[in-house]
Structure prediction request, 247 residues.
Amino acid sequence: MIYFKGCTAREKLKEISKSTQKLLDQAGVEYSSLDVEECCGSVLLRTGFQEDAQQVMRKTWDKLKGEQILVSCAGCYRTFSEDYPEVLGVEMDVIHISQLLEDLIREGRLNIEGVDVKVTYHDPCHLGRHMNEYQAPRNVLKKTAHLVEMSRNRELARCCGAGSGVKSAFPEISQEVAKMRLEDAKKTGSKLLVTCCPFCILNLKSVEETAKNENTGENEDPEEALEILDLSQFLVNRLREDHYEGV
Prediction:
């Protein structure tokens, strides 16, 4: 198995890839990672740069063909699963981290301490609506915390606002959509938002931090602060350190 970190978890949110690798190590999963990792090509595809995307995808395929691929990013998962067969005519054996974590917990290879804390979950567009994977991350969360759903969830979940180049081309729209999604989360009464897409996290955290800075000194309520984590980060915080399966 090759752990494909993806651009965002590799370059901007390195704590996600570090958390993922810690979970894999503790579960005794045999895996490797690429010394030089190319992009999966998702962003280029979604923004219309088809020829550039194909060049990048061919380079990545050459490094990954014949291997099972584990990904943290919902966009990578959709691209490897759907776009590589369609664009390059090749099949990829790919699994999303939420699916693997569900298996590892069920098999007893990860010993996670459950806590009585409210958590709400954001469905990434690429993992949910595009790939119909709604249950694996929820099953993991239900084993470790009290999951409280937002009113708009699963097929009806609101986008984070960052996909398909919107964050770059229309930043104001992206920010407004993210604000609405953050408000959806806060209405659940949860102080913790978990998702399975580094791209979603990057946009939601950016907008949440901007809002906190703008409200500084204006009767801001610290109780309103929302922590935003990847599923791997959430689980690492709840690992029993004395449990090392296969070590």
In short: Residues 242-247 have pLDDT under 50 and may be disordered. The radius of gyration is 18 Å. Residues 118 and 189 are 8 Å apart (CA to CA). Residues 113-236 form a domain with the Rossmann fold fold (CATH 3.40.50.1860).
